[in-house]
Structure formats: C-alpha cells, structure tokens
User: Fold this.
Amino acid sequence: MSRKKDENVENDIQDENSIQDENGDIEAFANVVAEEDDGVRVMPMIPLRGMTVFPYMVLHFDIGREKSISALEKAMVRDQIVFLAAQRDPETDLPTFEDFHRVGTIAKIKQMLKLPGDSIRVLVEGISRGIIEGMVHEVPYFKANVRAATEVEYESIPNEIEALTRTVLDNFEEYLSIGQKLPQDIFLSVSTVEQPGRLADIITSHLDVRMETKQEILEAFDVEERLGLLNDMLTKEIEILKIERDINKKVRSKINKSQREYYLREQLRAIQEELGDDELIEDEIRDWLAELEKLQLSEKIHAKIEKEIKRLSKIQSSSAEGGVIRSYIEWVFQLPWNQYSEGEIDLKSAEAVLNEDHYGLAKVKERIIEYLAVMQLVTAMKAPIICLVGPPGVGKTSVAKSIARAIGREFTRMSLGGVRDEAEIRGHRRTYIGAIPGRVINGIKEAATMNPVFLFDEIDKVGTDFRGDPASALLEVLDPEQNKEFTDHYLEFPFDLSKVLFITTANTTDTIPRPLLDRMEVIEVPGYTEEEKVKIAEQHLIPKQLTEHGLDAAKVHVSEQTVHDIINYYTRESGVRNLEREIAGICRKSARKVVEEDVQKVNITSSNLDKYLGKKVFRYDVIENEKMIGVTTGLAWTVVGGTTLSIETSMVPGTGQLSLTGQLGDVMKESARAGISYIRSIAGELGLKKNFYREDDIHIHIPEGATPKDGPSAGVTMCVAMISTLTGIPARQDIAMTGEITLRGNILPVGGVREKVLAAHRAGIRKVLLPAENERDIDEIPANVRKKMEFVLIEHAKDALSHVLTKPLPQKDASKGKDAGGKSKGVDDGNNVKVNDKKKAEDGRKPKATIGRDADQKS
Assistant:
C-alpha cells in the first residue's frame, strides 16, 4: 500500500528506556496546565488516521494535509505542545469536529523533518490523556479547548489492581511466546514499569489490534477498568493466535505429505524409465515441441504452450493434473493455426450462386457482392459484422450458407437461442472439472480454417442470469477492433478472429442490447409478397419436396393457382416455412396415392386441394366496394406480414363514455382518445351537436377480439370512422388508410408501409391513404403491386374525409382557405401518387420527425 500524505503510523515505537528519559518535559507541562483555569488549555490539534497515540509513547508519523501542517507550525512557534485525536473514519480527507474521537493525547513535538512531496515527518512524545471541551476554530487549522486528564500515581497499589496487573503481564508474556511477532526483550522492559496505568498503556501500544480497540483503552480513565479491558483483549488475541497456530500446523502437514508423494512419484517414474514404460510420453512431448516450432506463433503464445508441454513432462501422466494439461495441449494443436480458405473471388459466379439459392432478397445480395468487390481490391480488409433482421422463414439462415458457398469458405453455425451462460462464448477456466473452450473457438476448430463464415443464429434471443451475460461477451467477438485478440478463458491467450466473416440473424432488433447492435450492420430482410412466394414454391420448394419424397414433376403437378390458394388459405406468414410444410403434406399424400392406387400422375388443383390439406384454415376476404356508416378499413403490421383491419364504430344515447373493445393495447386506446378530442375541437365545422360528447356514448370495436392489437397507426382510421358515425355519412370500405393522429389532426408517419400495402393489395383494395412523410416508402413496394395501386398522401385528418366519406361535409368559412369538407387537392406525380397541395406549398411548417415501425400486433 502506498504511503498517504497524512498521519500514517510507521509503527516504529521506541523502547521504554527512551520513554522514561523525558520525565522533565512531562513535569513541565503538568506545571503549565496547573496554572490554567480548571485545567483547560487552548492548543493546536492534528487529526490522526488509522492510529492512536498513548501517553509516554514516542513514535513518528508523516503529515501532509494543509491544516495539519499549519497546526504543526503553530505549535512549534509556541511551546511545541499539540493535541492528537484519532479520526472515526480514516478515509475522510476533510474531517470536521464531528469526525474526531473526543479523547486523545496531549503530546510534545520532539523533532520534525521535511520530506519530498510537501509532507513532514514528525517525532512526538505522548504526555497525558486529554478531552476536547470544544472547538475554537477549524480554519486555517484545528484549534481546540483541551482538558488534561490527571493520571493516578499509586504509592501503594491496591490488591485488586495488583492482581489484575500480574494477570495482564502473564497474558502478555504468553501473547509474545505464541505470536512471535515481537521481540522477547519487550517483556523485560515492560515488566519494570511500576505504575499499573502506565503499564496498560505501554502494553496496548505494542499489540497488533484495530485502532478502535486501542481507542477504547485510551478512553478508560479508571486504571482498574483499563487493566480489565486490556486483560480481556489479551485473552481474545491469545485464543486467535492459538487457532492460527493450529491452522499453520495442518498446512505444514499437508505440504509435507505432498512432498512425500512427490518423492514417491519420482521414484516410480525412475522405475518406469528403467522398464521402458515412459518412452511413449517422452516421444509425444518431443513431437509436440517440434510441431510447436513449425506453427510459427507469436512469442507470447509460443511461450505459453511450451510452458504447458514442459509441465506435463514433469508430472505423472496418470495424475489428474496431467490429464488436464494433456487435454489443453491437444486442444491447442487442433486449432487451425495460419490455415485459410483460399477460394478465388468471382463476382459473377458469386452472384449466380446467390440467385440460384434464393429468389428476391435484392438488398442482401447487393451488400454481399459489394463486400466481395472490396475484398478483391483490399486484401487486409476487416470483415464486416452483418446482422440479417426479418420475420421467421424468410431465409436468413440459408442466406448465410449461400454466402459461404459463394465466396468459397467453410461455414459454421452457433444458435444463441436460450444461451444464458457466458462460458458458452468465452469457455470455462481450467480450474473447473471438465472445462472446455467456448463455442466460438470450438466452431473455428470444426471449420478447420481461420477465416470461415460464422453464423450467430437468433442473436435477439440471448438471455442473462447469474451465470453471466453472453451478450456482453459477444461485444469482443463482434467488434472488428477487438476480435483480433479474442481471449478464451480456457486457452488463456489471444486468438485472432479478425479474418472471420461473422453473420448474425434476428427477428427483431428491439431485444438486442444497444452496444451490441451498434457493432453490426443491420440489413432488413422483408417478408415475401404473394407473387414472390409463388416463384419460390415453383423454383425451390416443390422440386425439393418432390425429390425428398421420391417423386418428380412427371408424377405430381401443382398448378400456379393451387399455390396461390395454399398461400392464402393455409398459411399466414411472412416467410415460406409453413408453405414448405404444406407442400410436404401434399407430397406425402401423393406418394401414398401413387403406391396404393398405382396412378401415373397426380394433379393438384384448387378444386381438390382440400382432399390433401383439409378444410381451409384462414379466411381470405376480398373487400368489396361497400359503403357503411361508421365502418372503415385500416392497415396493420404483424410479425407475419401486413393485414387489414375493419374498424367499426357506433353511437348510442348515454353519458359521453368512449368504449374500446377488441383487445386493444394502451397505445391504440390513446390514439382513439386523441381522435375524439380532435373531433370535439372541430365539432362546429362538422355540424355536430354542441354537447354530443356528453349526451352520446361512442363504441369502437375491432373484430377478431381474441387477437391482441396495438400501435398508433390506426389513429386516422378510427377518427374517420367516428366522424362517419357522428355525421351519419357512409364511408367507403374499399379505401384503406394508415397514420398516427395528433390532437390537432395532423397525420404522422408510421412503419411497415410495404407490408401494409401488400395486405391491402391482397384484399382487393386499390386505393390507400398514407401519411405524406411516408412517400419515401412507396419505392420499397414491388413494382407490379405499385402499378395497380393509387396512393394518396395526406397531412391532416380532413384530407382523408373527402376520399373516404361518400358525401361532402357542411361548408366551412371561406376565409379558412380550404374547400368544402377539407377535400384533398392533388396532382399525379407519375407514380400513381397524389400529393396534397399543402405538401407542395412552402407553408413554413416544421418537418415532422419520422418514427419507426409501429408496434401493431395481429397474429
């Protein structure tokens, strides 16, 4: 521990002879105190940390705090008398009056020496006990009123005190003999002290006990009480020393036993050498050392492995420790040191491989081709960390395999779903029985190359518990700046992962820790459209399942319309996993039919599909051009793609309550309340009764009540539905809309536009109202769908009324600057998009912040 610039004791207590030589100073101070009123004297005070000074004790310590140095200088100018008081908490750097013990020691400064670093070493001699009666001031140094305590001087010692004194001396002698930390000469000097009180102080100053215990002795003014406390303390310390002595004996006994076993093992080893049984081990060690030289490792790693090999040569091979070291060495030599896949990069062939394995996924393929192009130009490029995020079944895992095949590298995979132990990533330390490296090093060993494609599957499902945080351990693995020296707990030396191409997959980024997500390049893998699913089924899924079931296209034919029906009525997903499962079911029944009925060809059509897959599982409703009061069509995003929402509203006489049913979430309920508040603010413009919100109850219901629903994107849809109900004007159901509404009727952007528009297209809707700030998302919609749809960009709830309501609203004041009913004016921008005049005009309105995909859930 480094010396603090303060009053840290040096524990250099002078012997009793030097103490007794200073009686003249003590008697002089006693005469001065006698002349003071009531024995109280004002003197500088120095706080002590971690030590207690006793009367008649000579020692030196260092001080460095400004107040302590000022008090020392003041005392030297006057009479060299200072009061020493111990702090209650040694860690307090700036103590106050409340931080000191009230009882301390009045001492005389014998010598002071300045040390480097503005600290001073002081030699003091304790004179008598003192009690702080009050503090004069604390700045620039501590100055206190101190009452000196008079020590009783016995001419004839009472029998009780004499008995205590002898007991204390006996215990102190036993303490010295057992502890053996202090020289025996101390007992000879202590035993010559005649006064019991002084004897107790001197013995206490020599004991290795806590400062609080010594302070308790210092505060005992009664000599008999002081001797009793000291006797109890010595008895306790003797018992502790005896326990320590027993423990040391046991340890020495074990050491002697180990030495004896080592001697016997060496004899056994010599016998084995004579018999020739140990030659095999020596050959292995020579082979390992030769192989180690060939690996050309760094000096640090080479020294570590060489040390373990030499340790094994000195340990009996049948011992437990020998087995641990042997396993470690074998693991080290199984790693692919300096072995790399040297596949040539051909962009055209790589692109052909990606297109062959997957249909669509243009963004993912484009990013991989860009990476390969850079690899051709820069050989020392740090591999990027790619995170493929998308719903289940869209091909994230298979894309990683295709990437490995496209660039000619080995592929290894680790599933992180449910992993809760940090040791799964970093490995176990060799102190544990059965310790092995982590899954990362194990994957590198299985790949047998230093630059494989390493897939961390389901990284969003990593857990955390008392065994550690695997996500935090992944920070080093997935950081290109750190993974060059990744250290596994089992290997205990850095291993280079910088050449590994890490790919991770996730269904959502919400559960991935932010520091981990920041290290990865996120690539969205969107759900497939119906047309894309049909192409995937025809080009990949059907041929694959026919082959696995011993069939071919000549025996089983599935029409394109049949595939459409399977997608619409038997699956409800963003990917194609369930679609492949249904196709597999068709192949099984077709195989049975071929075997049992000996038919030449099985044709699967829409008319006989239910014979193979059973009754339709899902309802696929095409929304007709119906007009109903209080019913509008909204759009929602789910983990399996987009869907349409039919929002129903009704009004009944009541007390102004708003009822919301359909298992709606908190965010959706808040959107409905925001909509009704906006309607109340424009009730006059809508021609509504002044107190409609007090006299009528409004009920909003979204069907399929067993399915939870949440998110802000249905705000404009619920608002228009309530206006339709309150005004009695029917609303068109063949127009879908989405957008978050504010209290002023503004429409904010939402997420999941691509999936929502595709859902509207599947439902037969050809006109969709979108927030104006979502115009950029229209380009993400497939071109074949975009050409069939009409998009109207709206900025305000009133913009939607002229498109959805079948009749115009009552005329407004012309000074407002808008036509009747808030009708949206727009121009065609060439992309089937109508843009409001408000969006084109420079009206000085601040741009609205774009928010991400909303939390709509409808499974």
Summary: The CA atoms of residues 16 and 189 lie 6 Å apart. Residues 223-275 form the longest helix (53 residues). The first strand starts at residue 8 and ends at 9.
